[in-house]
């Protein structure tokens, strides 16, 4: 379980920012396309310019899988670079895996043992036997989809059951899974009307919150409804940071955007008397 390390980073960096490394070759600076591995070159530059201001990196696995074996090599080089040079930083494999037990065991082995990520996102809607193989790893975190920001979330997550919404029933059920202390939850920043209820159900678990900035989420409002005594939230930002510029100064532009968010977070932490 990595939460002690996360809290330590939050206090030292005065930030709870996660930078999403969702690399689209059509959006990165054109001069990088001449490199042998443009994805890794881009990631390395972003990491080198932003690591002082963030506590985590989230790699969206689909953006690497799209390029076959070359993409997997870029993914492996990126996670190895992070683990070697910034071992204190929390790493997230945004893979959204989830399948029957034996298959989930293989996914867990791939991302936790072979690639050595600290955590993985998992789709929990097949139930506990699709999630518990990930939770068997004592020193890793499993981040399950709680309530997502996309329009289609209302198709299932926001359906009413006899007791409550489907996503509320899921979160409540997950508290009884083996090693549930190692669970974190994805909760979209645009779903502010549900944040307080979610925090009441899981007062201590960390929340991974995407949707700030480009997707319309308000940082201050989200924090007011979710911060706990250990901060308890990781705010992900991807496009607004990594694609702040597409010229040769792209890494400097990314750092500037990261600093803007980090400074807002520091102000919130001070007002909340958490640093």
In whole angstroms, how far apart are the ends? 22 Å
Sheet of most strands: 8 strands, parallel, barrel
What is the name of the CATH topology? TIM Barrel
Number of strands: 8
CATH superfamily: Aldolase class I
Mean pLDDT: 94
The parts where pLDDT drops under 50 for at least 5 residues are none
Percent of sequence in beta strands: 5-15%
Quickly give the structural class. Answer: alpha/beta
Q: How many structural domains?
A: 1
Please bin the fraction of helical residues.
40-55%
- Radius of gyration over C-alpha positions, nearest whole angstrom: 18 Å
Any idea of the CATH class? Alpha Beta
Order of helices and strands: HEHEHHEHEHEHHEHEHEHH
How would you describe the overall organization of this protein?
An eight-stranded parallel beta barrel has the order 1-2-3-4-5-6-7-8, surrounded by five helices. The model has no long low-confidence stretch (mean pLDDT 94). The relative contact order is 0.16. With 275 residues, the protein is an alpha/beta fold. The chain has a single domain (3-271), classed as TIM Barrel, CATH 3.20.20. It has helices at 3-13, 38-50, 62-65, 68-85, 101-114, 132-135, 153-156, 166-174, 192-201, 219-226, 239-242, 250-271; strands at residues 17-20, 56-60, 90-97, 119-122, 141-147, 183-187, 207-209, 233-237. Helix 2 (38-50) packs parallel to helix 12 (250-271) and helix 9 (192-201) packs parallel to helix 10 (219-226).
């Amino acid at each position: 379980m990595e939460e002690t390390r996360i809290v330590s980073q939050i206090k030292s960096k005065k930030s709870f920012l996660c930078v999403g490394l969702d690399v689209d070759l059509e959006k990165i600076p054109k001069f990088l396309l001449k490199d042998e591995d443009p994805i890794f070159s881009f990631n390395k530059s972003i990491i080198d310019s932003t690591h002082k201001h963030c506590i985590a990196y989230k790699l969206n696995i689909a953006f690497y899988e799209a390029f076959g074996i070359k993409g997997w090599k870029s993914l492996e080089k990126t996670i190895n670079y992070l683990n070697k040079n910034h071992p204190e930083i929390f790493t997230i494999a945004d893979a959204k895996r989830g399948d029957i037990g034996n298959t989930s065991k293989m996914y867990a082995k791939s991302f936790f043992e072979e690639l050595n990520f600290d955590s993985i996102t998992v789709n929990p809607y097949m139930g506990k036997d699709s999630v518990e193989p990930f939770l068997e790893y004592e020193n890793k975190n499993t981040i399950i989809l709680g309530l997502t920001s996309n329009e289609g979330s209302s198709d299932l997550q926001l359906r009413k059951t006899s007791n409550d919404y489907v996503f509320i029933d899921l979160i409540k059920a997950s508290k009884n899974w083996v090693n549930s202390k190692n669970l974190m939850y994805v909760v979209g920043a645009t779903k502010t009307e549900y944040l307080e209820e979610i925090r009441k159900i899981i007062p201590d678990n960390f929340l991974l919150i995407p949707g700030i900035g480009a997707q319309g989420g308000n940082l201050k409002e989200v924090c007011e409804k979710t911060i706990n005594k250990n901060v308890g939230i990781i705010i992900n930002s991807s496009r607004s940071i990594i694609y702040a510029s597409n010229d040769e100064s792209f890494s400097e532009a990314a750092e500037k955007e990261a600093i803007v968010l980090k400074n807002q977070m520091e102000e919130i932490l001070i007002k909340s008397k958490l640093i």
